[in-house]
Amino acid sequence: MQSSRFRPGSRNWRSRWPNCRASRAPRSRNPTESRKRGALRPEDELRPRRSEGYPRLVEALSNYEGGVPDSPGPDEAGPGAPAHLFADGLNPPQREAVEYGDGPLLVIAGAGSGKTRVLTHRIVHLLATRRARPGEILAITFTNRAATEMRERVEELIGSRARAMWVTTFHSACGRMLRGDAEKLGYARAFTIYDESDSIRMIKRTMEELDVDPKRFPARAIKSAISGAKNELIDPEQYKQQGGSYFEDTVAGVYALYEQRMLESNAMDFDDLLVRMVNVLELFPEVRERWRRAFRFVLVDEYQDTNHAQYRLLQLLCGEHRNLTVVGDEDQSIYGFRHADIRNILDFEKDFPDAKVVKLEQNYRSTQTILSAANAVVENNRDRRPKKLWTDLGQGDEIEVVRLSDEHEEARWVAGEIERLVEEEGISPLDVAVFYRMNAMSRVLEDTLVRFGTAYRVIGGTRFYDRAEIKDAIAYLQYIANPRDSVAFTRIVNSPKRGIGNTTQGRLLSFANTTGDDIWDVAGQVESVPGMGTAAIRAVGEFQRTMRGLKEDVEGRPLADLLERVLDETGYFEALESERTVEAEGRIENLRELIGVAGEFDTNRALEGESDVEPLDEFLQQISLYSEQDKLTAKDELLTLMTMHNAKGLEYDTVFIIGCEDGVFPHQRALDEGEEEEERRLCYVGITRARKRLYLTSARTRRMFGGRSESTMPSRFLDELPAKLVHQQGSAVGQGGFTTGYQGSGHGGSGRARSYQAPGRPRPGGGPVTRIEPGTAVHFEVGDDVTHGTFGDGVVIGAEPGGVIIVRFANDGSERKLMAEYAPIRRKQN
Fold first, then answer.
1. Are 31 and 382 within 8 A, CB to CB?
2. Which of 309, 351, 641, 823 has its CA 20 to 30 A from that of 788?
3. Strand, coil or helix: 674
4. pLDDT at residue 145 above 60?
5. Can you give the pLDDT at residue 85?
């Protein structure tokens, strides 16, 4: 039951929460500017208390569930094994980092320098030297995929004991810790974690309550402002005091009510997981001490990507023992737009004056030419520690820098060169990637690849867990797990259609807000809600009876069975089947895949044994924290397209970076806002993704976002490349200036027409080009340029039986199915 001290709207709730967060001054444009951090981290928080040393820690951990047996098996390496067994194969700086003793450690890990190997071997070394047990180690990464990789590597070295460690992400760790302490802040243990779309729905509802015009202030803009405040640990009252503009005042009002409604719904968004954990650690000393004793060593990967809330969390967890190891590289800090604060890594030695700093500069990925180019570009930044990446993999090929006439010729040249690499040099499309600064830049390239018959995938599109049917299924489970979850209720109560419209939903929610009752209880007593008609009462009653039956059957049922029963008994499967369309069949396949995910969860949980978290709660938490990169596989021979931000952490034998023009890359907005250094770091990241070959292309004119073509200047980053590293095609480059003369490259234009004008010709990884014959006088082929009377210019990208063609239109990038015989569409004349 919710404590009255923290009831939303009460004086204690309003006064206690805001004051528990450490606020931060607005972010300075100069990350090296001195700042006051004393208020965030009192000195006694970082000074070790020697009287409470390791003996007390061992005693405190005697009852800690994360412990492991003291004696490893005879055939299994583990705690107590010779430490040198785990240091073989490390270079001197890596070994220095692995074997460092107690205290703060900063590992500056250049791109491709083996940082994951260092982290895993340091963990094993801590265990081998008996400085920690597995349950006393917290290792934090930024993606589930990285966490899984690290856990598997440690498990290979020490066996199943690794499972007692916490190798996880910030959000997963906080979600897990909060399950036991959320009640101290007025939440129930089974709180729901809202993803972005759920949070937006709550923001929209809050805006409606406050009569905020969504056309003037879009919900996503307000949500972004609130997220920024939370990442800086600025609560609604502080935000209101710092405000000034009408937009900021509006955000402050929405922020305050949003927080109240989230608590009433027993829900947290992603930012709340961090903020509430910081709240608990600051407000309750006994909780802070418990978690400090639990984690004797804390290790953090990608420290340059941490925000202020994550920084504060680490200070609170490590304030006594100070055994904090952070690994990162300020030259790869590219997520400022996500509130990452480069000052955290730049000022680590200010926070910990006695910190050990180790630099990893040997690269195991790229050729020296590629590394020298990356060094030359990034050393133009001021806010960094000097370092030089080097390798013993050899000098490698020169960097190809190509300047084309426009974005279409650029796309043709890139597609043609990829085709040449595949056909003549035997390179797999899997080992090739094309990067661009903005998602909008991919359209011309995609259209061209279709013409060439080149199969590709775009990383960063609609994710599996963002598809409507998947979110509906998850919302059903959320409503079963958390009866106070009003956002889940509004998503599913009329999906599939039950005749429960917005008016009925509004009355239910208003009654719940007025009475303070859970939406579950209100829906169960719908006849008590004023203004409800007979049909609405019947529809809501039937819905709630179904949900009550499902909730009563959760105990002991495998998640896969529960999910399938939910989709059957709610009529969701039946509604899709009744549509009898290809799209509905695809949605059913997606839901079947989700049931498979639940089945994998059931299997893994059975192997891992007992847990203090309910299966449904744990499953929902895992689902909510998935990311697109976690699902990348290598099943298909597909060329990869993505933005440079999405490329972080990946590597390919061959990399193309297109659109290397000032105003495009670096982006004009970043230049206007004084963020040139972050753009240069992004260039460094893009360059260092390449193992063997790197292509940098630009266009003399470019049409962006459907506007008119404009002349461009080559990117300033190209001018920072040493001329000796570059082979130019179309212009001169490198420390002597970039000229705009273009002599032709041998690719693009009509020279590659043979690649896509012959119907049926096999394509590497792409199959034959499809000829479309709808059975009438109208004939189109995949790759045909067409003009539609309403939608404008486009390209044919596919066909279906019955004379249907699929066209992607240039104006908005939309894809539409058209009847070729009847649509006002014609083939463009060359």
1. no
2. 641
3. coil
4. yes
5. 54
Q: ∠ at Cα 271 (266, 275), nearest 5°? A: 80
Query: Which residues face 693 on adjacent strands?
Result: 654
| Domain range annotation of the chain | 80-181+275-358, 368-462+633-749, 464-619, 770-827
Q: What is the mean pLDDT of residues 417-440?
A: 94
For the domain made up of 464-619, the CATH class stated in words is mainly alpha
Mean pLDDT of the 826-830 span: 76
Whole-angstrom distance, CA of residue 128 vs CA of residue 83: 5
**Of 825, 789, 793, nearest to 812 (Cα)?**
793
pLDDT band at 119 (very low <50, low <70, confident <90, very high): very high
Beta strands in 455-602 (DSSP E): 456-458
Distance CA 9, CA 14 (A): 7
Same CATH topology for 368-462+633-749 and 770-827? no
Q: 702 with 407: CB under 8 angstroms?
A: yes
pTM for the complete prediction? Answer: 0.71
* Per-residue confidence band for 680, with pLDDT thresholds at 50, 70 and 90: very high
Q: Domain 80-181+275-358 is in which class?
A: alpha beta
Element (H, E) at 267: strand 267-269
814 vs 685 pLDDT, higher one: 685
Tokens 């009462």 belong to: 537
Q: Which amino acid is at 585?
A: E
Q: pLDDT tens digits, residue range 429-439?
A: 999 999 999 88
- Quote the pLDDT of residue 746: 38
Residue 101: Cβ within 10 Å count? 10
Residue 801 carries which DSSP code? T
Considering the four listed CATH numbers 3.40.50.2000, 3.40.50.1820, 3.40.50.300, 3.40.50.720, the one that applies to the domain covering 368-462+633-749 is 3.40.50.300
CA distance 402 to 570: 57
HSE-up of 386 (CA within 13 Å, CB side)? 0
* pLDDT tens column, 401-415: 999 999 989 999 999
CB 800 within 8 A of CB 813: no
Q: Which amino acid is at 469?
A: E
Name the CATH topology of 770-827.
SH3 type barrels. (2.30.30)
What pLDDT is stored for residue 658 in this prediction? 98
When pLDDT is cut at 50, 70 and 90, the band that residue 741 belongs to is: very low
Instruction: Supply the mean pLDDT for the chain.
Output: 81
Q: How far apart are CA 300 and CA 296, in angstroms?
A: 14
What residue has token string 């180690």?
A: 137
Cis peptide before 801 (omega within 30 of 0): no
- Give dist(CA 148, CA 119) in Å, integer: 13
Task: Classify each residue of 562-584 as buried b or exposed e, where b means 16 or more C-beta atoms within 10 Å of its C-beta.
Answer: bbbebbebbbbbebbeeeeeeee
Q: Strand 690-699 vs strand 709-711: parallel, antiparallel, or unpaired?
A: unpaired
What's the rounded Cα separation, in Å, for the pair 598 and 616?
Answer: 10
pLDDT tens string 232-258: 999 999 999 987 899 999 999 999 999
Is residue 781 scored above 50 in pLDDT? yes
- Return the exposure string of 150-177: e unless at least 16 CB atoms fall within 10 Å of the residue's CB, then b: bbebbbebbeebbbbbbbbbbbbbbbbb
Q: Are 37 and 351 in contact (CB under 8 A)?
A: yes
SS3 content of the chain, % helix, strand, coil (to 5): 50, 15, 35
Q: Report which residue type is found at 224.
A: S
The catalytic site residues sit at 115-116, 301-302, 332, 689
Q: Which two tokens stand for residue 385?
A: 């520690």
Cα–Cα distances in angstroms (integers) from residue 48 to residues 64, 102, 420, in the given order: 22, 11, 62
Determine the Cα–Cα distance for residues 147 and 151; give it in Å rounded to an integer.
Answer: 6
